Amino acid sequence: MLRLTRRAFSSTPSPRVAVVGSGPGGFYTAKYLLRDSKNVHVTILDRWPTPFGLVRYGVAPDHPEVKSVQDDFEEVATSERFSYAGHVFVGHPADAPSHTGPVVPLNDLMNLYDAVVVATGCDLARKLDLPGAELEGVVNARAFVGWYNAEPTFSHLQLPDVSDQLRSVIIGHGNVALDCARLLAAPSSHLDATDIHSTAFEALQRLPSKRLIHVVGRRGATQAAFTTKEVRELTELENAALVIDPAELEAGDTEASIEEGKARPLKRKRKFLDQASRRPGGDLRPGRQSRRARLRRSGWVKRGPTGIVGSNVADARETAAAVLEDLAASGVAGYGEGTSWADWRRIDGVEKANARNGAPRAKFSDVEGMLDAAKSS
């Protein structure tokens, strides 16, 4: 049961900060708040009973090395000045999903805490402004990634029925686009020992063995947002071939692109793409605000959906430093709790116990299952 109480000001204040969102932006902010102050108390609130946001619901299941940042976040949660309030929706009641627990308007939260940091990520998917975008078979990457990562919002997504050959086009050439391409192309052996949701795993394996996947972007290789590591992984899949048209690479070589491409990381990426384009292959052709409390932002909600998980470190440090400056003469407010960190540990234990052979966990894709597990002994 969520309890939010207003507390009286104290002559020896121990300021309380609410961080909305438990992804990298939220946890790194909490880390530096707790590290750089000896008396601040931090409560992370999240709409799901489970923590970690993007790391749990956005990182590809075959990237366990990226998910390892959870160990750092687990360390943050051991602080006596840390608490977790899961299954709590912060915002207008009309916007709350049907499966949520307690709903706390942002204005109320700002009355109850000395500072509030919003680190909710970029939750709204961008619409494809093209004719036919509403047709069956057009799936937003936000929904597709959430589906294979067991985010409850997208648990009912279904892939279109394909009998002979899968022909798909992925619009955009960032790391998420290549994640989607890799999971569509991957054989079952590649995903066996991952935490991909079982429903998604089975649906992907039912796709025909012949799969033609195009990755397209509006600009050339120099401006492509994917990393060399991500594109290299496409060349390491069994029974799959990465094909890059040399003419398409050259088409993006404008005077400005050539100058921009002199930076070392871009030179390294272009060298790899040039090498890949010369290999024989198959048919793939990838081309500060102030109210009652100081309200801050961290992570994607602050800077947009750019960068990798580690990009949140410097961002969170900056936000934490600004919050501590704001709190120099603040009072004390109480905090509430939906599902606690102890509840998350019970959910974590059940997911690990239910894992397929070789997989790290079997993630719940429904809130009811999470809450039942939270009550387990």
From TrEMBL:
Q: What is its EC number?
A: 1.18.1.6
Instruction: Decide whether keyword Kinase is in the record.
Output: no
**Enzyme class, broadest EC rank:** oxidoreductase
List residues binding FAD: 54, 90, 300
Query: Tell me, what's a Pfam family for it?
Result: Pyr_redox_2
Any one GO MF annotation of this record = oxidoreductase activity
Region entry Disordered: which residue ranges? Answer: 253-296
**What is the catalytic activity of this protein?**
2 reduced [adrenodoxin] + NADP(+) + H(+) = 2 oxidized [adrenodoxin] + NADPH
Q: Where is the sequence biased in composition, kind Basic and acidic residues?
A: 272-286
Keyword Flavoprotein belongs to the record: yes
User: InterPro entries, alphabetically?
Assistant: FAD/NAD-bd_sf (IPR036188), FAD/NAD-binding_dom (IPR023753), Ferredox_Rdtase (IPR055275), Ferredox_Rdtase_adrenod (IPR021163)
Q: What SUPFAM superfamilies has UniProt attached to this entry? A: Nucleotide-binding domain (SSF51971)
Which key words tag this protein in UniProt? FAD, Flavoprotein, NADP, Oxidoreductase
Q: Give the required cofactors.
A: FAD
Residue positions binding NADP(+): 173-176, 218-219, 230, 307
FAD/NAD(P)-binding domain: which residues? 16-186
Question: What family is this protein classified in?
Answer: Belongs to the ferredoxin--NADP reductase type 1 family.
Xref: PANTHER family: GLUTAMATE SYNTHASE 1 [NADH], CHLOROPLASTIC-LIKE
Q: What is this protein called?
A: adrenodoxin-NADP(+) reductase
Organism in which the protein naturally occurs: Pelagomonas calceolata
